[in-house]
From TrEMBL:
Major place of residence: membrane
Protein name: Permease IIC component
Presence of the UniProt keyword Transmembrane in the record: yes
GO MF: protein-N(PI)-phosphohistidine-sugar phosphotransferase activity
Organism: Lacticaseibacillus camelliae DSM 22697 = JCM 13995
Subcellular location: Cell membrane
InterPro entries: PTS_EIIC (IPR003352), PTS_EIIC_3 (IPR004501), PTS_IIC_cello (IPR004796), PTS_Sugar-EIIC/EIIB (IPR051088)
Annotated GO biological process: carbohydrate derivative transport; phosphoenolpyruvate-dependent sugar phosphotransferase system
């Protein structure tokens, strides 16, 4: 049954709000398209690859934070420099190789998603091609401040965070070509049955590997000889920066999360959109912030990975920690309080599926409104608080399961003001969720009464 307000009461129509949403052809089509988009081969492979290497960047945040907070508080002068070798070493193994680290991970995940049984070979080809397309001479600055060009070395401008998108593109393209070539039987070398499997697998892909790396070497030679350029630099200039510039701008970011959370209200996880369109880009911003902080330079980006969990998705998608608080403080409905109490523990660690599907929020028209709008409001509060220097920019990548209050303090390397702003965001969320929670409970109560009446008549 469907109940709707009309001059002081509810009247009964033919279907419930959930049924009406489920039967809406447009919404069904929108959901279908969104699911297909989120499960595209390349986007799914990107999500898988970044999930694998995310711990690396979290550890990078730890090294950066220790170097610039704890060690600075405890040591001075030469002693401080010796201790900071610890954080610098972590930076060298994480942020400074981010561009070449992401390529083999993408190669492996994409090969597996393409049902290619030699994922390690695909990872090796992606890594090799990433180095092939890098320039053979790099500009460096000496300690005296003189600019020189050297050969036989690699610059972190290509291997580090600024080369991440280049690593992504090369990993995707190289793996796709390699897998297709490796599946051509005429290009496979078979050494017989008595050869060890590892050796046999290597020779089987020898010709495809030769063709693949030769193609990338030709591209590198043409770009260097004719245009005095390189592929990683071109990708950064023409693809990475424009795409990242829009998607991580305030407008692009809010638009993506608006539709991502709207999708979740129909039962499809918001990462179908945000995980594909935003996660790699905000991670690049996060890594560049950490690198700038480690080098004592100006922090470039407001929106980054830690910003998401600090202000956009506090307590999980839709920032439902505010709804849990609103229910526990103001609701008198026993079932709602039970769901909120059970959801509080996971919600503290930003896991809120029990709330989304148990309260529920999905297909619950009153609750859909704050669930979609509040993350945008939280984003605006956090963004402008940062923009006007009321709080520090995020410079440490914290795990997404880090509880509220602790998360923004760690992410800003110990700025207590970020904690205050997050508390304000949570409080605003309680006020926003509260009236819609009351409406939802009234509708649920009326539906229960109607169901009892229908059962009695039957």
């Amino acid at each position: 049954m469907f109940y709707q307000y009309e001059k002081g009461g509810l009247f009964m129509a033919k279907e419930t709000s959930s049924e009406k949403l489920q039967n809406n052809a447009f919404l069904n089509k929108f959901t279908e398209i969104a699911v297909k988009f989120g499960n595209l081969l390349y986007l799914r492979s990107l999500r898988d690859a970044f999930a694998v290497i995310l711990p690396v960047f979290i550890i990078a945040g730890l090294g950066t934070m220790l170097n610039n907070t704890v060690f600075v508080w405890l040591f001075k002068g030469a002693t401080l420099a010796k201790w900071q070798v610890f954080g610098n070493a972590i930076t060298n193994g994480t942020l400074n190789v981010a561009g070449v680290l992401v390529a083999p991970m993408i190669g492996y995940c994409l090969a597996k998603n393409m049902n290619f049984d030699n994922g390690i070979a695909a990872a090796a080809m992606s890594l090799a091609c990433t180095f092939i397309v890098m320039p053979q001479s790099v500009p460096l600055t000496t300690l005296a401040g003189k600019s020189v060009t050297v050969t036989g070395g690699y610059s972190t401008l290509w291997t580090g965070t600024q080369g991440m998108f280049g690593g992504i593109i090369v990993g995707l393209v190289a793996t796709t070509i390699f897998v297709k070539l490796a599946n051509v039987k005429k290009l496979q070398i078979h050494l017989g049955e008595n050869i060890p499997p590892a050796v046999s697998a290597s020779f089987s892909v020898l010709i495809p590997a030769l063709i693949l790396m030769s193609c990338f070497a030709i591209i590198t030679a043409l770009l260097s000889g004719i245009f005095n350029s390189d592929l990683i630099g071109l990708i950064k200039t023409w693809i990475q920066e424009p795409l990242r510039g829009f998607n991580t701008s305030l407008v692009g970011y809010c638009v993506i999360y608006f539709f991502a959370n709207l999708l979740f209200t129909f039962g499809i996880h918001q990462t179908v959109l945000s995980g594909s369109l935003l996660d790699p880009l905000v991670l690049i911003n996060m890594n560049q912030n950490m690198a700038a902080y480690a080098a004592h330079k100006a922090i470039p980006y407001i929106i980054n990975t830690s910003f998401v969990s600090s202000f956009t998705l506090v307590g999980g998608s839709g920032s439902t920690i505010s709804l849990i608080i609103a229910i526990l403080l103001f609701s008198k409905v026993k079932s709602s309080r039970q769901v909120a109490a059970l959801s509080l523990g996971p919600g503290i660690f930003n896991i809120n599926e029990p709330m989304i599907f148990g309260y529920p929020i999905v297909f619950n028209l009153p609750m859909m409104i704050p669930f979609v709008l509040f993350p945008i409001i939280g984003t605006l509060i956090g963004y402008y608080a940062t923009y006007f220097n009321l709080i520090s920019r995020m410079v440490v990548l914290v795990p997404w399961t880090t509880p509220p209050i602790i998360g923004p303090w760690l992410a800003t390397a110990g700025d207590w003001r970020a904690v205050v702003v997050q508390i304000i965001v949570i409080a605003v969320g309680v006020l926003l969720y509260l009236p819609f929670m009351k409406i939802s409970e009234r509708v649920a109560a009326q539906e229960a009464k109607m169901d009892e009446a229908d059962s009695a008549e039957a």
